[in-house]
Amino acid sequence: MNTAGRVGLAGLAVVACTASIAGCAASDEGGDGGGAESQKITVWSWDLNAEETADAFMAENPDVDVEVVNVGTGNDQYVALQNAISAGEGFPDVAFIENYALPQFALTGALADLGPLGADGLASTYAPGPWASSKVNDVVYSLPWASGPMVLFYNQAIFDRLDVAVPGTWDEYVTAAQQIQQADPAVYILNDVGNAGLAESLIWQAQGTPFSVEGEAVAIDLADDEGTQRYADVWQRLIDEDLLAPVADWTDDWTKMLNEDQIATLPAGSWMGSTLTQAVTEGAGKWRVAQLPEWEDGVATSAEHGGGGFTILEGSDHKDLAFEFAEFATAGGGVEILKERGLWPSSIDAANDEAFLSEPSEYFGGQAVNEEYATASANVPDTFQFLPFQVYANGIYNDTVGQAYNHSVTVAEGFANWQDSLDTYGAQQGFTIQ
């Protein structure tokens, strides 16, 4: 399972950072950041694929030692990383950071600008969506690794049994949700109890731009942004009619419902395919992959959902070697490791590998699912931005928008409450809120 995607779905609590925006920068103590290269680097990542990637890198570079350290998944790592940065010691050379959390570390000065290290020449190496997500204020801070082009996973057996058409638009998705419940009240089109990562990605797919960041100036528009309004309208209809299973992702109940054919679709990043094959064994041969329902009939768009890349700490004394590892992981031998694990690499070469694209998946009934991932990856708008405090934002999502699920507020009202909280927090952190 791609844990990067998992954390993105689940939503995170706020990263502990009490320092000022400038004061969170990593310390250069102990070296000049560009002096004699050590042959050892430390990588922080919770993804098991990082260990195998490090082994492959060391096999090609026998004089190099790469230590991979798991200090915790997602938010646990971010808290540990921030604490080490604030202390000026104990931080790694390389850290895997999810796309939505990247600005929070980049804008503090904690991460190195990868352009001078070689990233400026790599723009054509990665798919447009992941490449755009690797930059903050047009500066490259990350080499994108495992990508999450968003598709619709659907249980074909459910749709066949209940005689419901697989939806091609989001209006049809609401209709299909109604028809599924009418035909079998034990089955839902989707589970959702408030999911910041899912909402952000679907707003992205709707070509929404609710967040805008330029330097320390932040603009938040969760009221009039067209993509946000589209999402709010569809989700309000799903909530009003109790068409969503009240079960959180990654719980035992969620896995049980999937195995018992009680959840019909999962709009998610491509990494969900790996999750299904491992956790939903009863679904083998039943599930298929399609492009996301369209917000406008005939206009195909997707989004990134989950995924992230390797960053280099500004305080690292071994930036050149760290960059060599990051490039190997994301555009070299590490790409093959991701492909073997059923994950979608950010490297654009994967989209041009005909054998990889046409490879049939037994779990998905012989479908060449990689072709669907490639199509989705090519249809990701590059205009979406995350907040420089997105980790905090996702952490309070259920306190605001999430209240719509118990009918305390409407989805639109929840977005307004979310914006009020984010405006206040951003100003407290020293950003200029516009």
TrEMBL record:
Against InterPro entries, the record matches this protein to: Bact_solute-bd_prot1, SBP
Note the Pfam families from the entry: SBP_bac_1
Superkingdom field: Bacteria
SUPFAM superfamilies reported for this sequence: Periplasmic binding protein-like II (SSF53850)
Q: What is the official name of this protein in its record?
A: Extracellular solute-binding protein
The species is Microbacterium aquimaris
